[in-house]
Amino acid sequence: MTLSTQEIAQLRAEQSSYFPDTCTLQVLTRTDDDQGGWTESYANTHTGVSCRLAPMTTSQVELVEGAQVQAASRWVLTVAHNQTIDETMRVVHSSETYEIEHLEDTHSNRTAKRAYLRRLD
After folding, report:
1. Owning domain of residue 110
2. Roughly how many angstroms between the first and final C-alpha of the chain, as a whole number?
């Protein structure tokens, strides 16, 4: 079954009413350090983005980073279908910062984009 353009537009409008929060999307900036490397920083590029943030069912996992076991919290961020977002960005929501680990935006007729996040502690 194929949805019409009007039906997709209606579904997207309905989806937008399920965004109870706002967040900030930060874009990575690299500055040359004149020693062959760079310094990374993040700029608040998209502010007041309507969103929904929810913990994943199995939100606590353990990862090995730097030869140490680390606990990581997993989250799902949902934003509008046309929101600019990619895996190099960070998300700030209620003073917590998250890295985007995976972006789900390849299916057709989408009404929203979902990003799978890890909270930075």
Report:
1. 5-119
2. 45
